[in-house]
Write a structure and sequence with these properties.
The chain is an alpha+beta fold. 40% of the residues lie in helices and 14% in strands. The chain has helices spanning 9-23, 39-50, 59-68, 90-103, 143-150, 193-200, 216-229, 237-246, 249-266, 292-305, 314-321, and strands at 33-36, 78-79, 87-88, 114-121, 126-131, 160-161, 176-179, 203-209, 270-276, 312-313. A hairpin with a 4-residue loop joins strand 4 (114-121) and strand 5 (126-131). The longest helix is centred in the C-terminal third of the chain and has 18 residues, at 249-266. The two termini are 24 Å apart.
C-alpha cells in the first residue's frame, strides 16, 4: 500500500528498495497486489512496468535514473492552471505519457499486476478504487487520465476527467477526479482490501509505505512556502488547510488505527503488517521536484542509521506514536 505526497515520491522509492535489500521483500505478478494514490500511484505504475514477468523495464535505469533523477518542477507543472487551480500540469501529462509509452500501457487493464489506483470523485464525493482484476469492468479506463487524476493535488493541480476505450463496459463514475488521498489515507479500504480479505483470506503480509509526514500546520506551511517560492501568492487558504490536514501524520495514524479497528472486528488483514515511514530532522518540500535523487539518498541513509524504526509492526508503531 503506497501512499503519496507529491514531490516526496523518491522517499517511497527508497523505502521500497530498502524493503527489498534489507527485509527480503519479493515483488512479483504471482504474489503481489498493489494499491496506491497520488505520487504513490506513480510508483505503483513503475512497479508494474519494472517487475512484470515479460519485457520488464529497468527499475534502476528506466525509472529511477532516467525519470526520477531527471525530474524537475518544469517537467511537472507550469503557471496558468485551469478552474480554481494554480498550476497547469500539462508537463506532468507529457512526462507520464512518455513512461506509459515506454512501458506499453494504454489502459488500466494493461497493467500486469493486480492493482488498485485511488481517486476522489467530485460527482460521487467518494474515494474510488479503480482496479484491473476484480469483475468490475474498470480495465477500460484510460491509464494516462487515471494516473493524472490520482496525482491531482486539490486546489494546486486541476481536476481531471477519466476517459475509457469502451464506455458500454465502463463501471466507474464519470465527471471530475483528483488526488486519491484527498479524503484521507486509503479511504474506504474496508470496502475494497477488506472485502477482498473476507472473500479470499488474509494476506501473508502488508507493507504500508509512506514518505515522511508532519503536523497539519507544518504541512500547510510547506505548501504555502512552496507556492510562494514558485511565484504564486494567491490561493484558497481554507482549502489548503484542509488538504494539509489530509496528508498530515495524524491522518496517516488515523488510517493505521482504522486498520486495527477493522481487524478487531473481522480478523487479520494479513499475517503481518509493517509500517515504513521515515522521520527526518527536516523534511523536503512537497512541491519541490528538483531534488529527487538527493531525497532518495537521505532516506536510505536514515534507514541505515535507524534500522529499528523501519519496517515496524503495525501495533508497535501505533503504540509508540499515538501520544506524539
Amino acid at each position: 500500500m503506497i501512499t503519496g505526497a507529491a514531490a516526496r515520491i523518491s522517499q517511497e522509492v527508497a523505502c521500497i528498495d530498502k524493503l527489498i535489500s534489507e527485509k527480503g521483500l519479493k515483488i512479483s505478478q504471482e504474489n503481489t497486489i498493489l494499491a496506491g494514490f497520488s505520487s504513490g500511484s506513480l510508483n505503483l505504475l513503475a512497479l508494474n512496468a519494472c517487475f512484470r514477468d515479460n519485457n520488464p523495464l529497468s527499475w534502476d535505469n528506466d525509472y529511477k535514473a532516467n525519470l526520477l533523477w531527471t525530474l524537475t518542477n518544469d517537467k511537472v507543472f507550469k503557471h496558468g492552471g485551469l478552474h480554481l487551480s494554480l498550476l497547469d500540469t500539462a508537463p506532468l501529462r507529457q512526462t507520464l505519457n512518455g513512461f506509459l509509452g515506454q512501458a506499453g500501457f494504454t489502459t488500466l487493464g494493461d497493467l500486469p499486476f493486480q492493482s488498485f489506483v485511488l481517486t476522489l470523485s467530485d460527482q460521487a464525493k467518494t474515494t474510488e478504487w479503480a482496479n484491473n482484476f476484480l469483475p468490475t469492468n474498470q480495465k477500460v479506463l484510460d491509464a494516462s487520465d487515471l494516473f493524472m487524476a490520482s496525482t491531482a493535488i486539490p486546489v494546486v493541480f486541476p481536476w481531471q476527467k477519466i476517459g475509457d476505450t469502451n464506455s458500454s463496459l465502463r463501471n466507474f463514475p464519470g465527471g471530475d477526479f483528483n488526488d486519491g488521498g484527498t479524503q484521507g489515507q486509503f479511504k474506504n479500504f474496508e470496502d475494497t482490501i477488506g472485502a477482498y480479505v473476507l472473500a479470499n483470506g488474509p494476506f501473508e503480509s502488508i507493507d504500508i509505505i509512506s514518505p515522511m509526514r508532519e503536523s497539519g500546520t507544518t504541512e500547510e506551511a510547506q505548501l504555502e512556502e512552496g507556492l510562494t517560492r514558485i511565484g504564486i501568492k494567491e490561493f484558497l487558504k481554507d482549502k489548503l488547510s484542509e488538504l494539509a490536514a489530509g496528508i498530515s501524520f495524524d491522518a496517516f495514524l488515523t488510517f493505521l488505527t482504522n486498520i486495527q479497528a477493522w481487524q478487531s472486528k473481522n480478523g487479520p488483514l494479513a499475517q503481518s503488517i509493517t509500517v515504513n515511514i521515515p522521520r527526518l530532522a527536516t523534511n523536503y518540500g512537497i512541491l519541490d521536484f528538483n531534488n529527487e535523487q538527493a531525497e532518495y539518498t537521505a532516506i536510505c541513509q536514515w534507514i541505515d542509521a535507524n534500522p529499528t524504526e523501519f519496517a515496524v509492526p503495525l501495533d508497535e508503531f501505533v503504540s509508540s506514536h499515538s501520544t506524539t
